[in-house]
Amino acid sequence: MKNITDSFVSLSHWPSAGSFGFNTDILATNLINLSVVLGVLIYFGKGVLNDLLDNRKQRILSTIRNSEELRRGAVEQLERARARLRKVEMEADEYRRNGYSEIEREKVNLINATSDSLERLENYKNETLHFEQQRAINQVRQRVFQQALQGALGTLNSCLNSELHFRTISANIGILRAMEEITD
């Protein structure tokens, strides 16, 4: 037995560079170090891990409660919407029943209004035609009067000599002065 311990003791004094041997230093071995680290983590980390898990559990439970409340609210809204839908459907049926007579009444009113509008447009058209006819007649009259006046002036100018022309102008000037004195 002494030989075995001596062999371990003699191995512990070997230089570590370039040689193979057993490490008798307990703190230097990986397996022991790992078990110590894991033990410390489990001992001290257990409380932190429990707190984290408890917090997560509380958040999940509050989320579930909130979801349940939202679901209840959604169910209530759905019931209100269904009741409103039934009410609207009943009103729609009533409107359908009463609507046909209203549609007929509106149709008659629309036809009457359209007829009145057409009658007004016809009257406006007739007035416009009459106005345009009167305007055309007046233009023709002015044109005929201008041509007759030009013809008469042409005839007078060709028939009048300068002395007769001078007397006519003097007479017209005298008439204009007499009219001017009367108006003053």
From TrEMBL:
Primary localization: membrane
Gene Ontology terms for molecular function: proton transmembrane transporter activity
Recorded topology in the membrane: Single-pass membrane protein
CDD domains: ATP-synt_Fo_b (cd06503)
Biological processes per GO annotation: proton motive force-driven ATP synthesis
A Pfam family it matches: ATP-synt_B
Transmembrane segments: 26-49
Coiled coil: 64-98
Record's keyword terms, sorted: ATP synthesis, CF(0), Chloroplast, Coiled coil, Hydrogen ion transport, Ion transport, Membrane, Plastid, Thylakoid, Transmembrane, Transmembrane helix, Transport
GO CC annotations, alphabetized: proton-transporting ATP synthase complex
InterPro entries, alphabetized: ATP_synth_b/b'su_bac/chlpt (IPR002146)
Compartments reported by the entry: Membrane
Function, as annotated: F(1)F(0) ATP synthase produces ATP from ADP in the presence of a proton or sodium gradient. F-type ATPases consist of two structural domains, F(1) containing the extramembraneous catalytic core and F(0) containing the membrane proton channel, linked together by a central stalk and a peripheral stalk. During catalysis, ATP synthesis in the catalytic domain of F(1) is coupled via a rotary mechanism of the central stalk subunits to proton translocation.
HAMAP family: ATP_synth_b_bprime (MF_01398)
Recorded family membership: Belongs to the ATPase B chain family.
Protein name per its UniProtKB record: ATP synthase CF0 subunit I
